[in-house]
Design goal:
Layout lengths: L1 H40 L2 H32 L3 H31 L14 H21 L2 H31 L4 H33 L13
Helix pairs in contact: 1-2, 1-3, 1-4, 2-3, 3-6, 4-5, 4-6, 5-6
């Protein structure tokens, strides 16, 4: 009877952990979408909303950390269960960073002027759409413990990097030709860099999902060290 109770309590903890991760991932995805909309539309109200909502993402990370550590200390999970708990702990930290990058985009939205003059603003939303899909799909892969989807998401990061290289060249040329717009162009370059980092972090989550599901790491990719 005691063993059955322990198993039930562990299952409840894992279910709760998955739910918190899912909520955190959903908020991070929405933050990116709304941050980009604030940038394109020049909506200060929406930008401030993204910035304010980041506190909820931070709160969820703290809840996940506490729950994961409690599960490890009290339940002593083994093998697959331990991998899932550790993956959840790491994923929470990565999702918090994705939330921070989205908050940075919202802050940049408050500082960009003369939006219609910048050609990269037609490229940046497309770049953000790919990164946002990566975040969405990696959370699906986590919920389903799907290593194949995780591996497919990792392959998409090259598209995000290609967009960043194109936007970087475009903005540098724009700044050279229009010195008066350097401040706003630099903000857009900062936005593109944040989106590129979101792609890297979605890739990191995909690697953790693959490890949690299979016990093996995907090593056939370039080393990245997103901050």
């Amino acid at each position: 009877m005691a063993q059955e109770h322990t198993v039930k309590a562990f299952d409840e903890d894992i279910t709760r952990l998955r739910g918190l991760i899912a909520e955190m991932g959903g908020l991070a995805e929405v933050a990116l979408t709304d941050g980009m909309e604030a940038l394109v539309r020049g909506s200060e109200e929406l930008a401030h909303s993204v910035i304010a909502r980041d506190k909820r993402i931070d709160t969820l990370e703290a809840e996940i950390d506490k729950l994961a550590l409690r599960v490890i200390a009290l339940r002593a999970p083994m093998a697959d269960d331990l991998r899932e708990v550790i993956a959840a702990l790491k994923i929470a930290g990565v999702l918090e960073r994705i939330g921070d990058y989205s908050k940075n985009i919202a802050r940049s939205a408050l500082r960009v002027e003369n939006r219609k003059k910048f050609e990269p603003l037609t490229l940046i939303p497309a770049m953000a759409e790919i990164a946002g899909e990566m975040v969405h799909d990696v959370m699906t892969a986590f919920a389903a413990r799907d290593p194949r989807l995780a591996a497919e998401i990792i392959a998409r990061d090259d598209k995000v990097d290609a967009f960043y290289d194109s936007i970087f060249r475009n903005l540098v040329s724009h700044m050279m030709e229009n010195p008066a717009s350097i401040t706003s162009a630099a903000e857009l370059l900062f936005v593109a860099r944040n989106i590129e980092r979101i792609g890297d972090h979605a890739t990191n989550v995909a690697e953790m999902v693959h490890f949690a599901a299979t016990g093996t790491y995907l090593t056939d990719r370039d080393d990245r060290n997103p901050n």
